[in-house]
Amino acid sequence: TPAASLGSAMARHAGPRLPLIVKNLIPTLSGVFDSQRITTTAFFAELLNSNVVNDLILLETMMDNMTGRQKDTCLLVRMLALRGLGNIASGSPEKVRKHGAKLLASMVNGMDDKDDPHNLVALEAMSSLSKLLDHVEERDIQSMLLHIAIRIRPFFDSEQPDLRQSSIVLFGNLTKFSEGNCEVFFEQILNGLVTLLLHLQDPKPEVVKACKFALRMCGPNMGCEGLCDMFLNHLREDRSLHYGEFMNNVCKHLMQSYPEMLNRLILTNLFYFKSNWVDIRAAAPMFIGFLVLHVDEDHCQQVDLDQLISGE
């Protein structure tokens, strides 16, 4: 936007004048006209992308004003406010740790925005949170980890590719913090595993790339060295994937390490028999076939054949 471009240019070239400009613009953030609030928020969001606001001791003021826009009646203002808060990760990364709890709370609130029909605020919250995670204290994220993981899970199957990509990348980034919550987060990995493996057949390359990243991140938390090695070796960004062969080996490891998971994995796959994406619809029965192929006889009783045959 022009306001963002102006903010970027002024951060580079007009540093000494910024304190007065910011001071004069702050009242428009609570003005009656949406257009003024949108323009000022976009301008501030872009300024926060630069360390100049920190040098000029404007960071806290601007951050408080961005946080204050989270209840704005205009969706675009709420979205841009989150973008500004996320931009602190690149503009003043050293300050993220200090304000971590506040910034994380803003992102979680953005994901829970009730008046967001096209999930624009949620998308901005997920993208910004991924940027902030590299700089926050582990204790600040731990208390929110489970809520965020559960909240973003439905976006893995969104019709909007950018929502699929952002939520899956964020999930991969969250796994860095799972050590203290290992058992709890392991459950979330199992909940998302089938979806991530099936979306390796997603029609959008950027979503496939996100799934590869998330699975590589999940591998070390799964307690199965063979599976972890497979994810790290076969899911490199630069490597093409022979999907059938890969899934055959993945299922072999899954049934060796977690045979009691068979029915749960099958049930999740059955959901994708009705997927809108033809390649994912085709991948789900293949996934089930490989699971059944590699499970030992003792665990075969878990399978509800009637359910499997009806495909529901």
Automatic annotation (TrEMBL):
<dbReference type="Pfam" id="PF23227">
    <property type="entry name" value="HEAT_MROH2B_C"/>
</dbReference>
<protein>
    <submittedName>
        <fullName>MROH1 protein</fullName>
    </submittedName>
</protein>
<dbReference type="InterPro" id="IPR016024">
    <property type="entry name" value="ARM-type_fold"/>
</dbReference>
<dbReference type="InterPro" id="IPR011989">
    <property type="entry name" value="ARM-like"/>
</dbReference>
<feature type="domain" description="Maestro/Maestro-like HEAT-repeats">
    <location>
        <begin position="64"/>
        <end position="310"/>
    </location>
</feature>
<dbReference type="InterPro" id="IPR055406">
    <property type="entry name" value="HEAT_Maestro"/>
</dbReference>
<dbReference type="GO" id="GO:0005737">
    <property type="term" value="C:cytoplasm"/>
</dbReference>
<dbReference type="InterPro" id="IPR045206">
    <property type="entry name" value="Maestro_heat-like_prot"/>
</dbReference>
